[in-house]
Amino acid sequence: MLNTLSGRFLILTTVFVMLAEVLIFVPSISRFRQDYLEDRLQRAQIASLALLADDMIESDLEKELLENAGVYNVVLRRDEMRQLVLSSPIPRPIGATFDLRDAGALILIGDALTRLYTPQNDIIRVIGAPVRDAGLLIEITMQTAPLRAEMIDYGLRILLLSAVISVLTAVLLFIAVRMVLVKPIKGVIGYMQRYAAAPEDARGIITPKAGVIELREAEEALQKLQIELTHALKQRERLAQLGGAVAKISHDLRNILTSAQLFTDRIEMSEDPLVRRLAPKLVNSITRAVSLCEGTLAFGRAEEPSPTFGRVCLSEVVDDVAESENLAASDVTVEIVNAVPLPTMIRCDKEQIFRVIMNLVRNARQAIIATGRDGRITVSLREDENDWWIVIDDTGPGLPKKAQDNLFTPFQGGARKGGSGLGLAIAAELVKGHGGQLALIATGGEGTTFEVCLPKGDGAV
């Protein structure tokens, strides 16, 4: 109960109302004291009228008048003369004098609090203005015990009334919050739980109907999120099914192409000039198709194997990539420049870094060939205290806008017609496995630059 929104709201409302009542209590008790003293002044003035009507009254009557007024002495000041009208013995000396004629609010509050927290019964003098202009002033002498008792009784009644008001207000607000806020929120939670249990069921999507603006905005935001998530889940399911089909096709196609590669080895031995001229192109085409199938299968696996770190001569890796790419015949000359200084050693998985550089160099080479103009690809290395930076720079036409927006997204980041976009996705995943990062540094009409960052870590050489 206390941990619920409505329960905490109930407690906070009660506390805040009680706090407000306490703030009101202080000036209220001060006002009560002032009214009490003024009432005693009026009673004393009325009692003094008997003496003013008859100069001589009996002592018993005088005593009765003073007891009814609740005072010891009554002094009136009339016609510039101060006259003791009624008097009786005072048990103790006068301890304090209070003038109610010009007392400010703060003085009255301070006097009231002082009297409330002073338990002893003191004798005080109170000065006030007579009612109906019956003189210049009236002065009485009285004890404080009855005053303090009345103030305590009044304060207890005020606190009790405050408590009742607080509880009643809190209960009413509790019911209102339950109806206006908690119930709609529970409805939203119910939709969320229902949707989480079966996100493919469109009936679990919330229908905004709250009357409170903020709650309706929350329902509309949840509805939008649920619709987008449902579409994303459906697309993911379709992609998963498509990926499974592509993996099966790639597996069988790879086997078929591998067999075709064996036949091309014999075709290359033919003496026919035309066959000998076309055979390398056929071999390269089949090799690329095999690589594409293997790349698709590799990406379709749950994850790449963890890299096996070792000391690798990066220049030798770049030479292997250049030799592999130079085997492919083309009418366009693409020079692959190895600018990695010897004998630089880096800490990495040799095979995986070979695949990373191969994918980047192959993409750059295919982009240059597509322009029909000769070009150059440069692989270089720089380092600092913490990282190695492998830079692949080409003189190609640059990446189109769509390829830049989906650079490392499988099946969407292809820069050339018919490309799958798997090369960069696989390369980025392999670099990430090394704790590094693959980034596009620049692209445009003058070429494209990719940068592979590999941390040195504890195995820096």
TrEMBL record:
Residues forming the Histidine kinase domain are 248-458
The entry's protein name is: histidine kinase
User: What does the record give as the reaction this protein catalyses?
Assistant: ATP + protein L-histidine = ADP + protein N-phospho-L-histidine
- Annotated organism of origin: Tritonibacter scottomollicae
Q: Which GO molecular function annotations are given, in alphabetical order?
A: kinase activity
Q: For this protein, what is the EC number?
A: 2.7.13.3
The transmembrane segments are 6-26, 158-181
The coiled-coil regions, if any, are: 215-242
Q: Which CDD domains does the UniProt record give?
A: HATPase (cd00075)
Q: Which UniProt keywords apply?
A: ATP-binding, Coiled coil, Kinase, Membrane, Nucleotide-binding, Phosphoprotein, Transferase, Transmembrane, Transmembrane helix, Two-component regulatory system
Family matches, as PANTHER family: PEROXIDE STRESS-ACTIVATED HISTIDINE KINASE MAK3, SENSOR HISTIDINE KINASE
**Residues in the signal sequence:** none
Pfam families for this protein: HATPase_c, HisKA
Q: InterPro entries in the record, alphabetically? A: HATPase_C_sf (IPR036890), HATPase_dom (IPR003594), His_kinase_dom (IPR005467), HisK_dim/P_dom (IPR003661), HisK_dim/P_sf (IPR036097), Sig_transdc_His_kin-like_C (IPR004358)
